[in-house]
Each structure stands twice: as structure tokens, then as C-alpha cells.
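Quick one, C-alpha cells below. Sequence please?
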């Protein structure tokens, strides 16, 4: 068992990582809550795969379990589904001394977590993430949200879970595109903080990767935990986690959500920016070539066909923009990154094809 403690004062919690943990979830949940009743929030795909096993483990430990299921996919991460979840929690008679478990990827985690944060002004919740994105990123750090018609994650709060239970074995059923999607974020962690992780990924490939999930997930969660401990409200250091995201979000939006996955956008965003910063002498020589190679090894894009000018309008709307400045995250060398505040007028200089424009 690998465990990571995340120290946030009264909001502290542990992340446990072990293959097969799903079937022992009941024992761990017992240590986290004295609730009698648990609402398990999941999407229909994950519920069909793992809902029965989780329920069995929880019931073996004496819980009264109610499952609340919504349709899988980002389209469900909205106010209408949230209203349905509130109704489901009311129908299940969940009280503030009960608890919510979110079982699934980032969508059940964000949507179910937001429901838990706001129903009855807050019901304790536990995350059981089932995608790579969720196991290395969204289940840790306490950001929960729903999308609004005007933008992704626009209604949300910071609400820390009581615990996070990660079973890497659940990744065996994850479609390969979601594996690569998640690896975009995993490679990002290597770039910003963890040269060892980056080099491990260089040595592995799609087939050998699964033997190393526990270690990979532990390293990613540790990085995120340490960063969040210093900056829970995302005002400074936590922005390092946005490496590749400024251009990545612009790519996702320029092509319309769903064409490129989030991880693919981040991958191209990291590669495009690093090519520029290396040319400017802000990044150690040779870094871009290694980054491109590792991204391509996991079928991730290193650029997109859209011209930089087509991406720019989407960048100037980035929510990380404050006034006339924008904070970019740049990689100085593999495993080392920093925040680089730039003037808005200089953005085109960082979003361009190296050697041209
Ligand atoms: N809160 C945060 O800090 C944070 C961070 C990163 C991403 N996010 C959010 O996370 C979401 C993306 O996460 P995601 O990719 O996990 O989305 P998701 O929850 O929609 O999962 C992707 C797909 O995989 C399926 N799935 C999940 N686990 C599976 C498994 N083990 N086997 C087979 N299929 C499985 C789901 O049913 C879904 O169809 C976005 O909404 C994003 O905004 C939040
Ligand atoms: Zn991301």
C-alpha cells in the first residue's frame, strides 16, 4: 500500500494507492466516517463496471448504500445533472452525518463532489477515481465544479475530500485514448517537478506502462499534494500545474471541445511553448527534442495544424489572464519549471512556430 498524506490543517486527508483496493473500500471508508448511509455517485459506464463490487464491500462493512447514477460524459457535468443529484440525495435521505462517495473519472468526481459540497451546506465525501486523469489529478486538491453554458468549471468551490482511494487495477478497462489523454498530464508532472518520472516514461511504452501504475500515480499525487499544500486556493505555486494548459485550452476551444482530448491539448501546448522558450534560451538546449519524443511515444500530438493566429483569440480569453498580464508556466529543464508573467501584448511571441512567424 502506498499512502500520501496531504496536510491542509483541519482539511487534511490521505490518498491510498493499491491494486485491488476497490474490494477493500469498505474497511477504509470505515476509518474515515461514522456514517450509517452512503450515497455512491457514479456514471452509468463506471457503475456498470464497478458499482456492484463497491457496494458489496461497503455493505460488508455495515453501510446502507444508495447508488445515484447519471449518463457518462462531460455533457452531464452541468446544472441539470446537479439538480438530479440533489434530488437523488434527498430521495436517499442523506444527512450531514452520512457521506457521499464519488466513483468514476473527473466528471463524477467534479460533479458529485460539487453536489456533496453544497447539499445541506456540505456532506463529507470520499473520492474513488477510476481514470488516469482522476487518479493523478482531479481527485486530489479539492476543486469541484460544474460547467456552465458560458464556460467549463465556471461554478465550483474548493471542498476537500475526507480521503482518496485509488485502485490502479481499474485502469485495465479504460479505453486506450483515455490512457493517452491521462498520460498528457502524467508527462506534465515529470516536466514540472520530477525528472525521474520523465525518464521512467521515456523507458516505458504502452505495454510495459501498466506494471508501473502504482509508482507513477504515487509520484504524480505526491507532486500535486505538495503543491496544493503550499497554495490551496491556486493563487501562486499551484499555477505550475497549468504547464501546457494555456495553449492547450486554446487548442481544445479552437477545434471545439471533444476533437482533441484535454491531455492531447496539453501535450501540444507543452511542446509548442517549450520549442519557443528553448529558442529564447529560457529552457535547456535539447529539452524540446526529448519532450517531443516522449509525447509521440504515447501517441500524443506535439503540434496542431491550426496557425498560431487562429489560437490567439482563445488565449486572450484564458481565465488565467489577470488584467494585462498573463502568467505562463515554462519548463527550464526536465523536472524544473517556473512561472513567467508576461504582458498580454507579448503573447504572440510565445505562441508561434519556432523558426518562423
Ligand atoms: N477537479 C480538478 O482538479 C480537475 C482536474 C483535471 C480534470 N478535471 C475534470 O475532469 C474531467 C475529465 O476527466 P475524465 O477524463 O476522467 O472524464 P470522465 O469522468 O468523463 O471519464 C472519461 C470516460 O471514461 C469512462 N470511464 C471512467 N473510468 C473508467 C474505467 N475504469 N473503465 C472504463 N471506462 C471508464 C467514463 O465513463 C467516461 O466515459 C473534466 O470535466 C475536467 O474538467 C478536474
Ligand atoms: Zn489538465
Amino acid at each position: 500500500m502506498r499512502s500520501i498524506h496531504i496536510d491542509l490543517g483541519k482539511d487534511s486527508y490521505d490518498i491510498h494507492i493499491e491494486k485491488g483496493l476497490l474490494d477493500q473500500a469498505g474497511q477504509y471508508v470505515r476509518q474515515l466516517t461514522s456514517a450509517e448511509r452512503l450515497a455512491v455517485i457514479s456514471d452509468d459506464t463506471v457503475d456498470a463496471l464497478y458499482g456492484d463490487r463497491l457496494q458489496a464491500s461497503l455493505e460488508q462493512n455495515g453501510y446502507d448504500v444508495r447508488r445515484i447514477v447519471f449518463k457518462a460524459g462531460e455533457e452531464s457535468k452541468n446544472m441539470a445533472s446537479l439538480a438530479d443529484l440533489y434530488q437523488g440525495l434527498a430521495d436517499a435521505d442523506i444527512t450531514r452525518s452520512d457521506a457521499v462517495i464519488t466513483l468514476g473519472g473527473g466528471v463524477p468526481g467534479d460533479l458529485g463532489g460539487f453536489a456533496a459540497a453544497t447539499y445541506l451546506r456540505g456532506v463529507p465525501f470520499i473520492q474513488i477515481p477510476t481514470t488516469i486523469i482522476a487518479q493523478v489529478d482531479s481527485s486530489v486538491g479539492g476543486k469541484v465544479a460544474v460547467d456552465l453554458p458560458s464556460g467549463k468549471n465556471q461554478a465550483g468551490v474548493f471542498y476537500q475530500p475526507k480521503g482518496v482511494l485509488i485502485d490502479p487495477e481499474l485502469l485495465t478497462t479504460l479505453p486506450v485514448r483515455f490512457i493517452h489523454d491521462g498520460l498528457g498530464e502524467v508527462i506534465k508532472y515529470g516536466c514540472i517537478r520530477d525528472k525521474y518520472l520523465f525518464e521512467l516514461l521515456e523507458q516505458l511504452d504502452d505495454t510495459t506502462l501498466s506494471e508501473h501504475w502504482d509508482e507513477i500515480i504515487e509520484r504524480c499525487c505526491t507532486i500535486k499534494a505538495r503543491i496544493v499544500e503550499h497554495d490551496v486556493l491556486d493563487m501562486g505555486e499551484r499555477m505550475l500545474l497549468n504547464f501546457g494548459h494555456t495553449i492547450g485550452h486554446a487548442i481544445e476551444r479552437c477545434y471545439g471541445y471533444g476533437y482533441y482530448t484535454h491531455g492531447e491539448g496539453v501535450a501540444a501546448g507543452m511542446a509548442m511553448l517549450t520549442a519557443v522558450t528553448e529558442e529564447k534560451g529560457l529552457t535547456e538546449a535539447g529539452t524540446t527534442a526529448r519532450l517531443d519524443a516522449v509525447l509521440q511515444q504515447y501517441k500524443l500530438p506535439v503540434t496542431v495544424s491550426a496557425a498560431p493566429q487562429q489560437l490567439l483569440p482563445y488565449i486572450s480569453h484564458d481565465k488565467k489572464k489577470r488584467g494585462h498580464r498573463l502568467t505562463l508556466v515554462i519548463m527550464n529543464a526536465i523536472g524544473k519549471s517556473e512561472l513567467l508573467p508576461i504582458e498580454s501584448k507579448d503573447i504572440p511571441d510565445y505562441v508561434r512556430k519556432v523558426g518562423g512567424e
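The chain has a mean pLDDT of 95. Residues 2-173 form a domain with the Rossmann fold fold (CATH 3.40.50.1970).
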